[in-house]
Amino acid sequence: MVPPIDTLKHGFPVYKNSGPKQTTTYSTDHRTFKLSNHPWQLRVKMGQVFLLMPVLLVSCFLSQGAAIENQRLFNIAVSRVQHLHLLAQKMFNDFDGTLLPDERRQLNKIFLLDFCNSDSIVSPVDKHETQKSSVLKLLHISFRLIESWEYPSQTLIISNSLMVRNANQISEKLSDLKVGINLLITGSQDGVLSLDDNDSQQLPPYGNYYQNLGGDGNVRRNYELLACFKKDMHKVETYLTVAKCRKSLEANCTL
Amino acid sequence: MKYGNVNIRLVSLLRLHCPLRGLGYIVELKGVPVVSVLVLSDEQIVRSRHHSRIFPADNIVLDPFVHAPHFTGCKSRELVTFSCWWSAGSFQNLTEPGALQMFYWKKTDLTKEWRECPDYSSSVKNECFFNKNNTVIWTTYCVRLSSKSQNITYDELCFELQDIVHPDPPVALNWTLLNVSRSGLNYDIMASWEPPPSADVSVGWLTLVYELQFRRRNSSHWKVLEHEFGTQKSIYGLSTGEEYEVRVHCSMRAFNNFGEFSDAIFVHVSEIPSKESTFTVTLVLIFGAVGVAIFLMLIIFSQQQRLMVILLPPVPAPKIKGIDTELLKKRKLNELNFLLSVGGMGGLHPYPPDLYQDEPWMEFTELDTDEPEPGEKEDNQRLLSLGHNNHCTNHGCSHTLSIPDNDYDPELPDQETLMLMAALLSSQPEKVEPCLGNQRSHSNPPALEVLDVPCPRLQASERGERPLVQTQLGGPHSWVNINFYAQVSDVMPAGGVVLSPGQQVRAPENAITTEEDKKKIGKMEGGEEESEGEEEEEEEEERINKKFPSQLLVVDPEAGGYTTESSGRQISTPDPSSPGEVYHAFPPPPPYLLHTTPLGDYQSLYILPNSPAQFLPPVLDYTVVQDVDSQHSLLLNPPSPQGSPSCPPQPPSKPLPTMPIGYLTPDLLGNLLP
User: Fold this and answer.
1) Which of A12, A48, B84, B577 is an S-S bond match for B74, by CB 3.0 to 4.6 Å?
2) How far apart are CA B255 and CA B165, in angstroms?
3) pLDDT, tens digit, 9 for 90 and up, residues B301-354
4) H-helix or E-strand containing B599?
5) Which of B117, B115, B119, B230 is nearest to B170 (CA)?
6) Which residue in B661, B590, B601, B659 sits closest to B631, CA to CA?
C-alpha cells in the first residue's frame, strides 16, 4: 500500500513513517489537521471498505456454501460407510452361522491373535486420540483403510441373504466411497497437507497379504477376511462420524 | 477318561472325549508321563499362541460338578472403558479376596506380557475396571483369571473392545398422546427418550439404535418395536382404559449388543365418556332416516305414474266391445252419449248384448224377437227402426243390410250408420250366430241383404242371445241398419275388397278351429288396418265403390261379425295379436252372400264364390260369401239348397282354394256374380 504522500507541506514527499511526526507538527495548523482527515483520504478509506465489503460478503457466502456442501458430502460419506459396515456385519454373521460352535470358537481365537492387513495403518485407537486428530487426518486414514480393501474385498464370501449379487459390488461401493473421501479431503484442505510423512509411507503391503492364508476354500482365511473387513468398516465409520460431527454446526449431529 | 489314563498330547486346543465338561489342555511330554489337564468351561477356553503351559498332574479336575473360577463377563458401556467380572466358582478356598488375580494382555503391547488388573474395583467384588487410559479399541484384549501365585490359570478370555459394548439404558423416557380414535377406544402415543449420557453421541463417537418394548400391565409378553435412528417412536393402537408399560434399550449400530432396559413408564388413558357422541350419532341417524324417507316419498309421489308402470305393468285390459278408446277420444260428446246410451248395459255395451250370435259376420245382424229380453230388444228395435227389414224366422230374425249403390252419401250416413253399426256391432259377440243362413229378406233395392240363419245347434245354446238387428243399407238409413263395420284389410286386384277379420270372436261349444283358419286370419290381419279413421273408411268405401263395384269381400270380425269402427279400433289397438280389425261396410258393392263358419274362438265371414272349393278353409273371422243373390244380397252360407234354414256349420276343414281368404280372383268373381 502506497503510503499517503503529503506534498502540501513542503513539496517533498512525506512517507508514512514520518506520518506521526507530521501530524504532530501539523496539529497546531488546522490546515494540516484537516489533512490527516482529509475528505480525500476518507473517501479512499471508505472506498476501500466498500470494495472490501462485497468481497467479504461473497467470501462469507461462499464459505457458508462450501460448508454446506461439505456437510452434504460428509453426510453422504457417512451414510455410505454405515451401509458398508452393515453389509460387513451381515456377511460375517452369515458366515459365522454356517460354522460349528467349535469351529467358531477356534476361528475366533485365531483371528483375535492374528493380524489384519490394516494393522499396519496407524490410526487412533481410542476416543481421546480420535478427537485429538484433525479432520484431515481422519479423512486420510479413512481413505487408506478403504483403499486397502478395494481389491481384497473381491474375494469376500457373499451369502445369499445379502442384497448384493457378488463381491464386485462391494468393491464398487468401496471405490465410490474412496472418491467421496477424496473429495472431502480436497475440500477440507487448508492449503497445506498436514499429514506426517510417516503416515504416507506406512502403506500396507496389501494385495497378497490375505493370499498367504490360503486359497479361497480356506475357512480360516474367509473368516479372518470377513472379521477384518468388519472391524475396518467400523473404524472408518467411527472416524468419519467424528469428523462430520466436528465439522457440523449442529449440536447433536448423530441424532 | 480315568484318572491316570489320560492321554497326553501337545495340542493347541482339544476337546476331551470324556465325561468331563469343557475343554482341557493336555500336554504330553516326551516320555514324561506328566498329565496336565485343565478343565475349563466351554466359553472361556482361549488359546493364544503365547500361551502354552504345562500343568502338573495334580491340577486335573475330573469332577464334573466342580466349577472352576471363571469370568462372568466383560463389558464396556461407552467404548471408552470396560470392566470384567469373574466368580470363584465352587472353589471355596478361593473366595477370599485376592485369591484370584486377573491379568490382561493386549495385542498392541510391545512387551507381550501379562499385566495385572489395573483397578480392582473396590465397590464390587471380583471386578476389574479398565479406565480410558488402559483401553484401546480395535485391539485384541486377553484377560486371564489365575490364582495368586500365577501358576494356575482358571480362565482366559479374549475380545476386542467394540464387540463387548453394551450401552447404558436411555434416559428420560416419556410419552405424549398423539390422538384418540373417534370411537374413543384406541389411542396413539409418541414415546420419546434421550440417549444415555455416557454414550457420547453428540460428538459422533457412538451411533445408537434403540428398541422399544411395551406390554399391557399384567401381560408377560413384551411387544417389540424396532427402531433405527432417532429418539422417539410412536406407538399406535393402544386401548383406552388399559395401562401399558413401555421400556427402551439401545445398542451400537451394526452390533447386536443391547444394553440394559430403561425404567419402564406407565401409559394410561382413561376412557372418554362418549355418551354425547353416541347421542349425537343417534340423532343424526334418526334425522337421516327421516330425511331419506321424506325423499323417497317425494319421489314416489312425483313419479307415481312411472313407478306404477314399472312395478305393476298394466295388464292388458279386456276388450270392451263396442267402445273404442279412439272413438272416445275423437268423437263428439253427443255421439259419445249416443253411443253410451244406446247400450243397454250401462255404457259398456252400447249394442244389444244379444245382438250377435256366435258367428260373426259383417253386415248381418239378426234380432231375435223371441228373446226374453225385451229391453234389449226394444233398444235394438228402436235402433233399427230405421229400416224394418226384419225378417223373422222361427230361429231368428234376419235382416238385410242394404248397401246403396251410387247415391251413397259417404258423409253423413256413414257417420250415423257407422256409429250405429259401431254401437250395434260391439255387443257381445257371443250372441252372434255361428252361421248364416241363406235366408233372404226383403230389402230395399239396391240393398245388400245379409241373411243370417241361426244354426240350430248353436241357437239352442245361445237362446236368449239372438237379437239380431236387421239393418239395411240404403240411403241414409241404410247405414243405420248396418250395425257392424268391416274393415277393409286389402283390396284385391280384381276389384274385391278383403275385409279383415273382426275381434272378439267367441268360440262356440263345438267350434272348429283349424290351423289354416288361424293362418288365414293371420293373413287377413296382416292386411292393412284401415280402420283407423272414418275418413279412411269412407275413402275405402268410395274406392271400393268405384273400383270394385261388383265385389265385396266381407270378413267378419271375430266379435260376432259386427264391430264398429271404433270398437274395431279399440279392439285392434290393445290387442294386436288378435285379429282385431274393424269391418267396414261397403256401400256399393253388390251383395254377396256372407258365410260364416264357426271356428274355434273365431267366427269369420267368408265370401264364398260359387266354387267354394277354390277358397281356403275359412279363416277366423271371415265369412265367405257364398253367393250373391238377385237382390244383391250376400249369401254367406255355403251353396246349400236355397232357403235352407239350417246352416250346416261349414267345416273349417272344407278345402278351399289356395287363395288367401277374402280374395277373389277374377274367375271366382265371375262365379260369384249372378
Assistant:
1) B84
2) 9
3) 888 888 788 888 878 877 766 666 666 666 666 666 766 666 544 444 445 555
4) strand B594-599
5) B230
6) B590
pTM of the prediction? 0.49
CB contact under 8 A, A106 and B13: yes
Is A252–B138 a contact, with Cβ atoms under 8 angstroms apart?
Answer: no
Cα–Cα–Cα angle for A61, A67, A68, nearest 5°? 90
Chain A residues with CB inside 8 Å of B201's CB? Answer: 252, 254-255
**Cβ(B111)–Cβ(B152) below 8 Å:** no
ipTM of the complex: 0.73
Using alpha carbons only, what angle is made at residue A14 by residues A8 and A15, rounded to the nearest 5 degrees? 145
Query: What residues contact B2, with CB distance under 8 A and at least 6 apart?
Result: none
Could you report the per-residue pLDDT of B535-583, keeping only the tens digit for each? 444 444 445 444 444 444 444 444 444 444 444 444 444 444 444 444 4
d(CA B392, CA B467): 11
The residue whose grid cell reads 288378435 is B578
B158 with A253: Cβ contact below 8 A: no
DSSP letters spanning B226-237: EE-SSSEEEEEE
Find cell 501530524 and name the residue: A23
Q: Between chains, do B158 and A126 touch, taking CB under 8 Å as contact?
A: no
Residue B230 has a pLDDT of 82
> Who has greater pLDDT, B574 or A117?
A117
Going by C-alpha positions, the residue among B657, B670, B661, B627 that lies closest to residue B436 is B627
Of B132, B207, B231, the CB nearest to A128: B132
Question: In A190-242, where do the E strands start and end?
Answer: none
Which tens digit of pLDDT belongs to each residue from B388-431? 444 455 454 544 444 444 444 444 445 555 555 555 555 444 44
Q: Which residues contact B636 (CB under 8 A, 6 or more apart)?
A: B361, B364, B435, B436, B450, B451, B452, B554, B592, B593, B594, B595, B596, B605, B606, B607, B608, B623, B624, B625, B626
Task: Find the chain A residues whose C-beta atoms sit closer than 8 A to any C-beta of B.
Answer: 82, 85-86, 88-89, 102, 105-106, 109, 112-113, 123, 125-128, 130-131, 231, 234-235, 237-238, 241-242, 244-246, 251-255
Q: Quick one: which of B137, B148, B429, B202 has its CA closest to A129?
A: B137
The nearest CA of chain B is from the CA of A133 a distance in Å of 13
Peptide bond before A124: cis, by omega within 30 degrees of 0? no
